[in-house]
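Title: Comparing notes on inverse folding

I've been comparing how different people in this forum approach sequence design from structure. To keep things fair, I'm posting one structure and asking everyone to reply with a full sequence. Here's the target:
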């Protein structure tokens, strides 16, 4: 998709492609689909080679504005993934990424949606930093979702942000021991070169049923994790 962003100097065509895929799924499978969109943080590295820092920041902020508009139109329920590259980068890249992230939080606050954060490995200090950045932007901590989160479930670990935990058995069991304030994810990539990576789309329901069958997770806990938490975080109704 980055090639399309470079070609168009914007993200709207990419977002529309995502919305189109979601609608195809709704029509063919008759299942509810919710979408979030945003300028992927790693795009910065390719864009800056092509357009330079100033124009890259402008393109990615424009992408956030385009995402916010789709949220206003109720076509998207959040802005993300936004944030920082998940690997080590130089200080300038980090500073520019934080500027874009802060802008994303401000726009999410404007349209009353959450942000989904893509970044380096998550620690309590990292969660604290994100919560403080959100506070400066006017975005409550519970509207900050940490994608690919480890089991940082307690408030003194995550500082009020919402962890979206990679749904491995080890992660889920560790999370449940601390509470139910988290969501599960697969981080599925849909890349033919890496089939099933990171986890396949079936992982969350299969893992949930397996844990219930083995008395490691109750139906009430599953209801909180899979229904109440996303409904509250995204301000959606999963009954529709």
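Reply #1:
Here's my take.
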């Amino acid at each position: 998709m980055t090639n399309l962003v470079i070609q168009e100097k914007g993200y709207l065509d990419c977002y529309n492609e995502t919305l189109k895929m979601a609608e195809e799924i709704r029509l063919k499978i008759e299942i509810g689909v919710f979408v979030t969109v945003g300028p992927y943080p790693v795009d910065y590295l390719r864009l800056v080679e092509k357009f330079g820092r100033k124009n890259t920041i402008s393109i990615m902020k424009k992408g956030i504005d385009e995402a916010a508009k789709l949220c206003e139109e109720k076509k998207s329920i959040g802005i993300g993934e936004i944030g920082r590259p998940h690997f080590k980068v130089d200080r300038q890249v980090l500073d520019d990424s934080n500027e874009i992230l802060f802008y994303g939080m401000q726009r999410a606050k404007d349209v009353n949606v959450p942000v989904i954060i893509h970044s380096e490995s998550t620690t309590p200090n990292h969660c604290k930093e994100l919560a403080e950045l959100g506070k400066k932007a006017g975005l409550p901590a519970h509207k900050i979702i940490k994608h690919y989160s480890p089991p940082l479930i307690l408030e003194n670990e995550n500082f009020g942000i919402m962890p979206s935990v990679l749904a491995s058995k080890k992660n889920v069991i560790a999370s449940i021991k601390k509470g139910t304030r988290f969501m599960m994810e697969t981080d599925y990539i849909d890349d033919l070169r890496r089939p099933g990576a990171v986890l396949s789309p079936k992982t969350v329901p299969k893992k949930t049923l397996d844990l219930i069958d083995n008395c490691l997770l109750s139906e009430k806990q599953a209801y909180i994790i899979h229904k109440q938490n996303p409904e509250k975080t995204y301000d959606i109704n999963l009954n529709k």
